[in-house]
Structure prediction request, 874 residues.
Amino acid sequence: MRTDTPQPIKLSDYTAPDFLIPSTELDFDLAPEATRVRARLTVTRQGPANAPLVLMGERLRLINIRIDGQPVESVVTDETLTIASVPDQFVLETEVEIDPLNNKTLEGLYMSSGRYCTQCEAEGFRKITYYLDRPDSLSKYRVRITAPRSGFPHLLSNGNLLEKGDLDDGRHYALWEDPFFKPCYLFALVAGELDVYEDTIETVSGRTVDLKIYVDTGMKTRAAYAMDALKRSMKWDEEVYGREYDLDLFMIVAVRDFNFGAMENKGLNIFNASLLLADPTTATDADYERIESVIAHEYFHNWSGNRVTCRDWFQLCLKEGLTVFRDQGFSADQRGHAVARIKDVKALRARQFPEDSGPLAHPVRPSSYVKIDNFYTATIYEKGAEIVGMLKTYVGPQVYRQALDHYFAANDGTAATLEDFLAAFEAVTGEDFSPWMAWYTQAGTPQLRASSTYDAAAHTLTLTFAQATPATPGQAQKAVVPIPIRFGLLSQDGDKQMFRHDGHLASEALHILRGADTTIVLTEVKSPPVLSILRHFSAPVLLHIEESGNDAFARFRGDPDAFNRWESAQGLAKRIILAERPDADLIDAFAEGLDACITDENLDDAFKALIMGLPTESDLAQHMSPIDPAFIHKNRNNLKSALSARLFDTLRDLYRSIPAPNTFSPDSVSAGRRAFRNALLDLMLARYNNAENKDELIALAESHFGQATNMTDMVGGLLALTYVQGTPYQNALDTFYDRFRNEPLVIDKWFSLQAAAAHPDTLDRVRALSQHPDFDAKTPNRWRALVQGFANNQSVFHAPGGGGYQFLVEQILAVDAFNPMTAARLVEPLSRYRFYTSPYRENMQTALQTIAAAPNLSKNVLELAARALTEEHS
Ligand code: PHE
Ligand code: ZN
Prediction:
């Protein structure tokens, strides 16, 4: 292990800044390789009288620096600028030169498709000018941008446009002012040629807000859906959270080159184009759904993030967890609560649960970090959202709204902490919420055990709940956490059953487990019950119910809680797939249950599509020790193929009964119908290798693909042909490529679909694709399409020879040389090597060691590789 591991930053070391910068004036003279940035900062001391002024700055060429108009001595390092002695109040003027064209980190000011754009969260502003680049430093900004008029007709920044005009030499300028105090990570600038899709909205108090979405020229119509989603988000936040927009202008810009999804800069959101542009022929229903939720997410940040921001980056989930919870609520209202919840839990299990059980496990509020960029994780986002959801479940919707109103009012215009968030719940309830803090400070997924005994004579049910959280790196001892458990009872036939609890007769109740274990007694339970625990997934825990093997079937048949109905199917599938030998009776029973679901006219199509989906290979791996990826892959395929054979006639009848759509609407009912139809096709094709009707199957898949009138069905057809391989698959891929060769977002899909194919040839194909003329590691969307698509492809990534790991190592090291933030995000797939069986385990470890030993590694990648390799795992 290397010894030059960078020093971590600790939450316990937090101190308030020694200086305030109440006003910030920036003047940008844009040029691709030599942009001049002049800053005029008013600075006031709030710390000790002798404290030096230390500003952050990276990759800046200092040209000029003055205090109150006078030249001043400063000491510049790679990361800071220090002035030893400064007055208590002064004006600091600096001028620096930066090189946006060659900035491939995509942080600070950079160029994408010939346009200037910025990304400052978390610590990118220091690549623009010397500054107090920390979220508790709030300032009012005035920004002047100068650029040639030709090529850069639009000059955008945060807030309101004060002035614009022409200058000599074909140049022009714009002057922007943001009336709200903000931290520098919310600063944004965009300059270039763009088309604008415009609309307006009237807010609840009657103000008119101009809405402008800026996209690549020629792409205007593809912004229509994002605009629609934006207007619905704005209305929803007014109605559901009482939050009104606060400027007269709201702008969104789509860019091709972006490290993450999107960014909530005040009044000027910047989006990865893949999360903004949509039309039926290029975007899938999943894309539409993501766009809707990310538009909402970034817009909602205007209150949860911007008006109330974070004191320090340890509080990241204060804005992210809350904002994810808010966007999930919005999506659920738009698309149906049960289906939305199932999808959210699937995502949580796919990404957060593995993270929380491996060497990279960290609390939702970490206590130390090397690079904060590495903490934009599923834990901080998704587990953070779950905590807010549990608080809401606990206090109920009305009190939750009061608590949030209180939180926004009490902290408006400040940089807050998680303590401030919980204090709002305390203020409106008068209760002590400190036990909830353990959810924020403690890593690891709690395990919840439920068991019961039924007294048939007394008609009572004694229910026992117990919790335990396994040790995680650096945290051997775990405290108990409050766990909201929503539960109900069913009869053995799967009908709902009443019971008396806390004096109420009900079919569902909520219990908060506060200690390590508890026992509660339900009375008036008429018949031997089946438990339905953790309805709507009321807490992010791993549930184990002690029950008879048939109880899951009762829930599968009729649990009125749609989440638990879906969950029962997942559990049964897991049981079948992970068994040492196949259990034909169990498979028959499962197939019958599935048959009943998919032919039930009372269930909606989106739900049917979900219940047909078997647990993913990575989810299954969580339940196997040691993990054998080949075993999981084989058994999962076998179950799919068995279901396909048993249900084939039903699948074909249902498939034929749903006409191929010839008009497109992105609404959730239409999307559900497409999802169901594609799921039916997928399951029919799943038995391809064992099928006698191969020609029929090929014809089905080819016509599905060939007749597709939208991208969802095209992708569905391609995926179906993946089972077939050979010429039909290659022909479809070629057709797809030829048709969309000029559509970068669709060519991204072309790369990722091939990388995700569970086929032994995939590694060779992926290697070849990494040499394809359209492959470009400098564009994160394209790089991730291939490399992340591949790393998530369990059976191929974990090829026995270790070749998949080697490919990933090469890719991470290549990208780390210019874009550490993006490279580091792909270390995670190697991190859980200890949980795998040989030889996977050794091969993964070797791959990680190769990364850790590489010369000139970034802090980002080094931090993750070092944490993954640390011996201590408790
Ligand atoms: N704050 C962004 C969000 O809404 C995420 C992000 C972080 C984007 C860092 C870019 C860089 O989730
Ligand atoms: Zn966010």
Notes: The pocket of zinc ion (ligand 2) is lined by residues 297, 301, 320, 323 (CB under 6 Å). The chain has a mean pLDDT of 97.
